[in-house]
Each structure stands twice: as C-alpha cells, then as structure tokens.
Amino acid sequence: MVNLVEKIVKEKDISKAHIVVESYKPLLISGIKKYYNKANLFEDLLQEGVLEICQAILDFDESKNIPFSGYLKSRIYYFYLGKNNVRDDFVSLDEEVEGGENISLLDLITDKTNIEEDYNIRERNKILYSGLMELTENQRNIIVDFYFNKMSLKEIASKYGKSYRTIVNTKTNGLRSLKKFLLNNGNF
Questions:
Q1: Are 76 and 131 part of one and the same domain?
Q2: Exposed, middle or buried: residue 80 (CB in 10 Å: 0-12, 13-18, 19+)?
Q3: How far is CA 151 from CA 125, 141, 142, 187, in A?
Q4: I need a labelling partner for 182 at 20 to 30 A (CA). Which of 20, 47, 113, 125 fits?
Q5: What CATH number does residue 171 fall under?
Q6: Rounded to an integer, what distance in angstroms lies between the CA atom of residue 135 and that of residue 170?
C-alpha cells in the first residue's frame, strides 16, 4: 500500500487520490481532534482535510528529499491549527438578550438609518443623473451650477459670457426636458 501511495504522489495522479486519502484518514481524524476539535463541524473539517490532501499531492516536491508522510503530517497540522485562528462564532441580531424579556439585539440598535429610504434616494439620484446626461451640455452646466453649485443666474451668465435672458431660457428648457425624462423613466 505504501508503494502505491508513493507512486500516486510521484505521478500526481489525482484520479487515484481516494487511495491516498484512505491511507491518511487516521491522520485527518487525529488532526481534527487534536488541533480543531469542533464536533458539530467534524464532517466539514474532514472534507476540507481531503481537499488539503489532494492539494498536497499536487504541491509535493520530491526533490526536497522529505518523505510525503512527513510533509503531509506537518501540512495537516498547520491546516487545522490555522483554522483555530479564524473566528467561526457569530451572534445573530435576533438572539434574545440575557435578562431582557423578549428583547433582541436588533431591538437595542439605536441607529435610525432607514436602509429602504437610502436605497430609494440612491435609485432616484441615478435616474436624475441619467436625465441630466440627456440634456445638452449648456442646459446641464447651467442646471448643475444653479442647483448644485448654488450660483445665481447672474453669476452663471457672467461665467459663460452669455446674457441673463439666455441663461434663464436655457435653464427653463433644460428643466422642461429633465421633467419629461423623469416622468417617462423615473416613476416620479
């Protein structure tokens, strides 16, 4: 059996990895019990160990003159030991608080953020942005300067070197086009 395992490892024949896994299954079991003894996760840990053996077959470098059994033993050791450093415990917000009568952790959160409202605002902003992109460059610039940059129409006229009346008309036409776009596409 040892010669067969060595041949499989040497040829990196993953199709016969089940033979190697069966040979080293006691190593996996002892590694789980010794380094990461979580009975409720035993089957998952065993399957992860099988994958680790398959990867070890592919990664094994025979030229380093280390026997596969020693290489695999240390690899399994570090694999399960490393799992101990990962927190797998979690707390559900639906869990009842100790000493509280029907009070969950979720009930204790004081943040008044309304996720649904935030989502709706973001979606409307996307639609508004799309509508602004449908306007002419002049219309878009004037509307952005007026509403977002808080510039007066007089300042905008001066900025673009145009008459006050032209700025008013361009803004009015831009708003009319934006309103039409939003009514057709934005559920406003």
A1: no
A2: buried
A3: 21, 11, 9, 29
A4: 113
A5: 1.10.10.10
A6: 10
Split into its structural domains, the chain has a count of 2
Summarised one tens digit per residue, pLDDT across range 93-125 is 677 777 667 777 677 666 677 778 888 888 888
- In 3D space, the residue among 174, 120, 121, 115 whose CA is nearest the CA of residue 147 turns out to be 174
Rounded Cα distance, 91 and 97, in Å: 11
- Given 84, 102, 125, the domain boundary residue is 84
What is the per-residue pLDDT for 188?
59
Residue 108 covered by a domain: no
Instruction: Tell me the torsion sign for CA atoms 35, 37, 40, 46.
Output: positive
Strand, helix or coil for residue 96: strand
pLDDT at 130 exceeding the cut of 70: yes
Interval 51-77: pLDDT, tens: 999 899 889 888 888 888 888 898 888
Q: What pLDDT sits at residue 43?
A: 86
Asked whether residue 136 is assigned to any structural domain, the reply reads: yes
**Residue 35 belongs to domain spanning:** 2-84
H helices, E strands: number in the chain: 9, 0
Share above pLDDT 70 across residues of the chain, in percent, rounded to a whole number: 85
